[in-house]
Amino acid sequence: MPLPTPFHSRTSAVCDSYEWRNWSGFLSAGIYEMSHDREYYAIRNSAALIDVTPLFKYEVSGPDAARLVDRVITRDVTRQRVGQVYYTPWCDSRGKVIDDGTVSRLDTNHFRITSADPSGRWFQDVGYGLNATVTNVTADLAALAIQGPRSRAILKEVVGGIDFDQLKYFHLAQGTVDGFPITVTRTGYTGDLGYELWVQPEYAERLWDCLVDRGARHGILPAGIIALDIARVEAGLIMLAVDYVSSDHAVIESQKSSPYEIGLGWAVSPSKGGFIGRQALMTEREKGSTWGFAGIQYDWNALEKLFAEEDLPPHVAGRASRSAVPVYEAGNPGHQIGQITSHTFSPIMKQYIGIGTLLNPHAQIGNRVDVEVTVEFKRKLCPAIIVPTPFFDPPRKKS
Amino acid sequence: MNTNQYDAIVIGGGHNGLVAAGYLARAGKKTLVLEKRYLVGGASVTEEVFPGFKFTVFSYVVSLFRPEIIRDLNLPAHGLTILPLESTLTPTYDGRDCLYRDGDHYQTLRNIARFSQRDADAYDEYARYMYFMAKAVRYILGVIPPDPTTFNPKDLKGLLDMARHFLGLSQDQLYVLAKLMTMSAADFVEQWFESEPLKATLSASGIIGTFLGPRSPGTAYVLLHHYMGEIDGAYRAWGFHKGGTGGLAQVLARAAEAQGAEIRCNAGVAQVLTKGGRTSGVVLENGDEIHAPLVLSSLDPKQTFLRLVDPNQLPDDLVGAVRRFQTLGSSGKVNLALDRAPELASRPGVGRHLAGAISMSPNLDYIERAYDDAKYGNFSREPYVDVIIPSMIDPDMAPPGKHVMSCFVQYAPYKLADGEWTDEKREAFGDAVVNVLERAFPDIRDIILHRQVLTPVDVERITGITQGNIFHGELNLSQLFFLRPAAGYAKYRTPIKGYYQCGSGTHPGGGIMGAPGRLGALEALKDAR
Q1: A311: which DSSP letter?
Q2: Looking at the DSSP assignment, which residues form a beta bridge with residue B279?
Q3: Side-chain half-sphere of B479: how many Cα atoms within 13 Å?
């Protein structure tokens, strides 16, 4: 039975839909109202509160902490300043991705890492012989994302001790709310202006109350996983076990992916020293990858025609789908070139979009492909085009 | 190079003018939009009338904006953001109870059942019928109206296509369609429902912007417009545009400019230049001449045919038809700046029930009586009011904690029986609205910081729309499709070569659809090829 998070007394009081998900063993609201529309638009138009406590959280500290983290992740920790947050994958020794998450440098020798899967053993094994401690703090830290254009204005009213105009994208700061300490990272899973707040569980309810109380004037709403999933696809952000399989969980070799194959090649630092998977990744970097990550936009006019063939108006699911669909070479239905792994109608872009992996060079931007869609139980092919991600990228995200 | 030479001029920077400009520029035409006010939008404007409070001055929701325009002009890239407006709350006459309908389907049925179990049971069936009706009519919105009286092969093909389209409906559905085209909104909904708040609120959609009552024949058709959004499913473009309808106008302006169109404000057009039966440009109110072989008027038919050109150049039948084209202004607008969120007597507290429409339509007789007043030249003593609180949907509309309230009011005739509209009468009209609001929102009087009252005369004075008719002309059957604005002139062309119509006075009519702008521009481009 999933456990309540430290915010549960608050989230359950407003979860009218009773639609709960099991997220890593915690009760997580899928949706609060009966329709996710307002929750989605809170992310894009005002501010949304999302309980992200179920993320796995680890702290690494000790004289060799930086060396340990640098050995695990593909980005260069020697260049990470205190107060900076990295988004990064980490790999096995063959350069296949195990997981991805954020790494916050709280101090020179103190890091906080989030992950989708339990990772403590891996971090500890990698750190064998190093003078550093890895602690699982999942239960010791409540995490709450506040995402949306009004999130900064609300935090300015609620959080003391932080100059929010100076807090840059993917940086962190320590402050206080109502007398208790809080870590604020300017991070999120929505591709919008937003922050994630990290507090000890005993302060979770007070934090929620303060944000709701002050945020009401700014249109704040709690948002569930359904709304978040649409936003993260629009932002082109991948999800473990949906858009790629952890090399720890893969049962056949072909299920594994390198960072280059899931759009995280930018996070592999070729100049840094030894890290796990480096050799394989440098070889792949030279030789090229089998697969490429792609943002795929369906041709809506063509989609409408496919529905018109069945005398139907275009009908797409309002929610994001994590069911993969096959992708074919344009005009060549016999040749499957990959799959879309997450797809959704984008309410703000009025386009049907998806992310996935395609055989190179089909993943190149501008390339045309055919995507399988089902209309009235019939399989049809809809033309689509590879476009850059994020699909939706408002300037406020980084401003 | 002569800077006053263009390929195309669009008169009027309302939403249809801007859409037309986007399409013309997209086709490579050097296009100029001329707007008489200091900002674009026409009746789709948002203005900070009171410091910090942004009013959606005239129009307030986006109802039927055409998806093909959103895609063709890539509006999302220019900031299109249509926020959901899902619920409708109807307070009873005394304000102590309410009928609340929202996306929570079964809760909605339970709410209806409190007034009538039978109505709750009929609700889904009604929705299913309306889905098929909307599906049939959706087709009409995208096509040039064929003229049934000619033997032009193109028209015949159009009629054939349309017949085939309608024949795709079952017999049952065809009957309902025929009823929908002829019945009154009240009679139509009474085929399904018996409870007053539901009947009145559903029929109220049928009278918006018309000088008709819910029991007037033909109003059922207008009601259908509210259902059209259902068809587009997830795509739906029904809701509140971020920043108000002026926000949408800004998006359209940016999209047109991105295509290369130029927009000039404070540039009212005095006259369209014609010579030898064709247009050569326009003369501005300041006397400047601007030349172009294509001139599109997005103004209403009376402005387009009777003011901008000399009616003597036009065929008598057209002049007569346009003169008789009904443009009776029937609605007013009251915009309020509020010190805090208003609270309903029937549902205290601040919540999502305030983020939808609140319809002051307690029963059918109430609305019909409001119409009775107007029929004889008075504003309604107890008007029908469609309320939204934009700041509950978009926090940028008012300072944090404060609110703006938009009240669409019917009826307010353009011409009063007892003489002209005066400041006193306007305020009395505003008082009548606040009195109605007060029954539902007992504290409303205490929290009003500022009040803007607009009568049809004000709408005409500010926007230029004849008689302040928000649809540029009644949406009744005698003025729709191949009869809009006049038989034989419904295909956006005019007897003057190069001079086109692209405003709401053409097919498919008013509302923030953009369809007339698009179709008008496409027809002009077809001829220019």
Answers
A1: T
A2: B274
A3: 25
| B358-378: average pLDDT | 97
Tell me the C-alpha to C-alpha distance, in Å, between residue A300 and each of A252, A347, B67, B80, B224: 36, 13, 10, 17, 25
Q: How many CA atoms lie within 13 A of B336 on its CB side?
A: 25
The SS3 assignment for B211 reads coil
pLDDT of residue B1: 46
Measured over all CA atoms, what is the biggest interatomic distance in chain B, rounded to whole angstroms?
72
State the pLDDT at residue B133: 78
Q: Where are the alpha helices (DSSP H) in B98-218?
A: 105-115, 117-141, 153-167, 171-182, 185-190, 196-204
Residues of A in contact with B75 (CB under 8 A): 350
Q: What is the ipTM of this complex?
A: 0.91
pLDDT tens across B419-446, in order?
999 999 999 999 999 999 999 999 999 9
> With contacts defined as CB-CB under 8 Å, which chain B residues touch A37?
84, 86, 103
Distance from CA of B106 to the nearest CA of A (A): 10
- B235 vs A219: CB contact, 8 Å cut-off? no
B412: number of CA atoms within 13 Å, CB side?
A: 30
- Backbone torsions φ then ψ of A205, nearest 5 degrees: -65, -40
Lookup: tokens for A379:
């399989």
Segment A372-377 shows an average pLDDT of 96
pLDDT at B201: 95
Listed in sequence order, the residues at least 6 apart from A238 whose beta carbon sits closer than 8 Å to its beta carbon are A100, A244, A262, A263, A264, A293, A342, A355
Check B76 against A348: CB less than 8 A apart.
yes
The reply to whether residue A317 touches residue B234, judged by beta carbons under 8 angstroms, is yes
Euclidean distance between CA atoms B468 and A116, whole angstroms: 59
Contact criterion met (CB < 8 Å) for B86 and A218: no
Query: In the prediction, which pLDDT does B525 show?
Result: 97
Cα(A194)–Cα(A152) distance, integer angstroms? 7
Query: Residues of B with CB below 8 A from A41's CB?
Result: 83-84
The answer to whether the bond into A361 is cis (omega within 30° of 0) is yes
C-beta neighbour count of A224 within 10 angstroms: 25
Tokens of A357: 């992996």
